[in-house]
Amino acid sequence: MISIPTASLASFSQREEMVDQYHAESKILIREFNSDVDVNMVRKLESDCEIGTKKMLSIFTNITSDPLSRIRFYPLHVMLVAELVESRELVGAVRGCIKSVGTLSGSILKMGCILGLRVSPTYRRKGVALKLVTAVEEWMLRNGAEYAFLATEKGNNASKNLFTIKCNYVNLSSLVIFAHPITSSHINHISKDIKIEKLDTDLAISLYKRISRVKDLYSLDMDAILKEKLNLGTWVSYYKEEGCWLNSLSKVNNQQFMSNEISSGSWVIFSIWNTCEAYNYKLQVRNAQSLINYFLATLDLERIFPCLGMSVNGSNICRPFGFLFLYGIHGEGENIGNLMESIWRFASRVGKGMKDCRMVVTELGFGDPLATHVPQTTSMSCIEDLWYTKRLSSVGDDENDKPVMKGEMGNVFVDPRDF
């Protein structure tokens, strides 16, 4: 009997894995998505990439009805797919877009965003994701992007390792996603002392342009965002006793508006994005009863399911749901705590009348002053989000580049199109 040292076995296994990876990479073609022939294969790929397995909790963002739904809001966008040369099967996909953003230092950056990276479970750890990321970065660079940008959950170690270790991305910012369920108790009461008034779109655009001066990172095309049909509107919450200052704003010209103080009182501005119309989110639990004890030890299902109006005791749950996304939240004044609570209640009322709307969600940077004023309830869930960036082009001002590459972006504008 011949004894083979453990180290030799490990080395052999590693070499075998490298050979498998080489063959997998050599047989894969990265090309642009063809809407005429690829839709069904993308549908299958998205289904295969559901989070979890058929026997476990699965939260799935279903965008197969429109594979370009997350990027078509941008004039410059692309979707790339990874195709097996022999069988023509699609085993991966990535979406990318390019937009211009401004920074607190006054610089303007052309930034490419990576959205919706998917790799078939049977082809993971074979270099497919790396090839897709490299290809979309090359597309961004050809189209003038100076930086690449992406977001991932803090707990997604595979994604973090791919981008930081293999692709040389650096941390740009840390944020937290707040999710509140839409329940009757949450929407019953808004203080009679508080007024919530809808803004004219042009006035909202001017107001956001002024607000952007205090943001570390913000989108330059607020007019396109606010005029998009998925945007339900922009409102301001303020105290009635401090008077209605909105009428006076509409009477001043834009130059005066940008240079003068808006109000000496307390106020909060916010906009609402309707994700119910953008994507279908599905939560699936099969054989739930046999898994409840396990998941209760790892996930707070008693908080997750009430958010969606579902029962933990169900043996088979599969229901589409959506949420309203609060964005552009900015407040000024000494007493904004109650105003922040009022906008959550207001958004919940809006969502209550919409089919399959289950939650109100927002995302704020750790450096955003309003992050500490988000109303805390026992039913609220929080997810930590990490933003990463990479410099693609050597052209640019290194001084303006420093805050970006050092991850000093704490108070950022979250673009609802990226969420």
Automatic annotation (TrEMBL):
SUPFAM superfamilies: Acyl-CoA N-acyltransferases (Nat). One of its GO terms (molecular function) is acyltransferase activity, transferring groups other than amino-acyl groups. Pfam families: Acetyltransf_1 (PF00583). This is N-acetyltransferase domain-containing protein. InterPro entries: Acyl_CoA_acyltransferase, GNAT_dom, Plant_NAT. It comes from the Eukaryota. Residues 28-232 form the N-acetyltransferase domain. Signal peptide: none annotated. It comes from Clitoria ternatea.
